[in-house]
Amino acid sequence: MDASTSVVSEFDLIRTYFTRPTRHAVLGVGDDCALLQVQPNNVLAVSTDMLIEGRHFFAHADPRQLGHKCLAVNLSDLAAMGATPRWATLALALPAVDTAWLREFSAGLFALANRFELDLVGGDTTRGPLAICITIAGEVPAAQSLRRAGARVGDALWVSGSLGGAALALQCAQGAVHLNAEQQTAVNPCLHTPEPRVALGLALRGIATAAIDLSDGLCGDLGHVLTQSGVGATIAYANLPRHPVFHELQHTALEQQCVLAGGDDYELLFTAPSRAQRTIEQLAATHQLPLTQIGMITSADTGLVVRDAQGQRLQVPRSFDHFA
Ligand SMILES: [Mg+2]
Fold first, then answer.
1. Cα of 161 to ligand 1 centre, how many Å?
2. Interval between CA 75 and ligand 1 midpoint (Å)
3. Does residue 240 share a domain with residue 198?
4. Are residues 50 and 194 in the same domain?
5. In angstroms, rounded to a whole number, what is the distance separating the alpha carbons of residues 310 and 308?
6. pTM of whole model > 0.90?
């Protein structure tokens, strides 16, 4: 069947590409609403992320990678709350029914959903400029949720994985920097197929005092934690886990911009009392994920301070703002 000329109704489209057996739903796709049962003593953690063609991803982006990424960014928000992924709904605007595109997109989406036993329980499709909006819900015991407001003076500041790789890949795709093929292969997955740190978020229940996922850049996202916790922070730039490709580039200004303010990393930034250091180091080993102490929480009056290896204060760059 020719993809561009096939006639597929909205109901066929949903049945074929977006209906799978559910694991945690009383009732999934197919009625006016899904019916969902939360475990006793848990609360629902709910978040929505919208991705628009030309704004959040390039036109003609690989549909399988897109299916992965639009779910990964939502899973990352659940990870940042310490929530177990359970359910999602998908609202999808498509310029035309392209069955090859739909097959790839849903394959990317469900490959990731299955890894976390997440059920797609509803949604909507319409004709329009390509836009993907996912609402995700997870469960967490209310007292164990990881919030932005819990950081305390003297807490250590930690980050998972490495920083700046996605921003570097974007700079390369936009022609602002040249990377050789090997370097592109190293950074492109950071931008196109980020790994949500769900297992780490769950493991940080009862350990982290505050957490956020890095979607808009380290300094900006840390700023949310500092504001909501009523504290400041000092970061040692030399301690930041930079993507390995930066070591080859030796381009200080570009590196600082990507590492301090680059978006799309989807790593977890969290705070914890200093006595938790051994426990966190053990978590890093268990999860085979680098966890790096990058600074300390200070009192609010010092604000956010970033110091280089010589102790000089670096200017804190602006982070990505969708309305700037
Ligand atoms: Mg977030």
1. 16
2. 9
3. yes
4. no
5. 5
6. yes
